[in-house]
Amino acid sequence: MAIDPTIITTVRADQLPVAPLTNESIVMHAIGETLYQATVDELIALLPPGNAYKPYETKILYVTDLYVQNNFETSGVNKGLAKPDGLWPGWAIMDGVHDTANMDGAIPLGYGATYNTMRQEVGENNKSVVLPTSGFPVGEATNNPPSGRLIVSSGLDESGEFFESIKKVGNTGAPSITFSIMQKSRVMLYIMFLP
Fold it and tell me: 99-102: which pairs have CB atoms within 8 A and are 24 or more residues apart?
C-alpha cells in the first residue's frame, strides 16, 4: 500500500499523541518495502509463552522452607511435585522421585572429557580412613574412655619437641576414624521440568 503524503501531518514519532498501549493497539511493520499493520495481540501470538520450559530443564533456587511448602507438595504420593496453584506447575523437586535425579546431598559435576557418562555418580560424602598403629607415639588415655575410642593428643614431650599421638582404647584392630570430606556447603532447591 502506498502512503499518501498529503495526509501525513507528523514528521517524527515523538510528535504523535501519547496513548496507553492495549492488546488492540495497531503496530505498523514492514515486509520489504511494503507497510502492514497488526495488533499487539497478533504480535504476542508470535512470541513463545513465558513458561515454555523444555522437558528435563533444571533450575537451582535459593529459597526458604516456607517457599518450598507453598509451592511443592511436602507429603503423600505427590511429595516433591509442584502444587498446581504454585509458581512452578509442571516441575518437581530433584529428590530421586517422579523420575528425577536424586540431588539430595549431591553436587553437580560438569560433563566433558573426564566425566562423559551422563547420570554417573562419583565420590562419597564420608570416607573411612585407617590409621596405622605403628609409627605413632602412643598417648595416655584419660578419664577412662570406652573401648574402641581413639585418643588423639598433642603437646611437647620431655625434650620440648612437639608430638601428636593416637591411641585406640582396647587392643584389637587398627585405629580408624570416619570424617566428613564435605566442603562448606549451602542447601539449595534443585527442580526439574517433568517431560
Answer: 99/194, 99/195, 100/192, 100/194, 101/190, 101/192
Mean pLDDT over 46-70 rounds to 87
Tell me the percentage of the chain whose pLDDT exceeds 90.
Answer: 32
Cα–chain-centroid distance for residue 132?
40
pTM of the model: 0.52
Q: Is 141 exposed, middle or buried (0-12, 13-18, 19+ CB in 10 A)?
A: middle
Sorted by sequence, the CB contacts under 8 Å of residue 1 that are 6+ apart come out as: 34, 35
Instruction: Work out the burial of residue 72: count CB atoms within 10 Å of its CB; fewer than 13 is exposed, 13-18 middle, 19 or more buried.
Output: buried
Amino acid letter for position 170: G
Confidence of residue 138 (pLDDT cuts 50, 70, 90): very low
Residue-wise DSSP of 126-147: EEEEEPPSSSSPPPPP-S-PPT
Judge residue 106's burial from the number of C-beta atoms within 10 Å of its C-beta, 0-12 exposed, 13-18 middle, 19 or more buried: middle
Question: Exposed e or buried b for every residue in 75-89, given b needs 16+ CB within 10 A?
Answer: eeeeebbbeeebebe
- Maximum Cα–Cα distance across the chain: 109
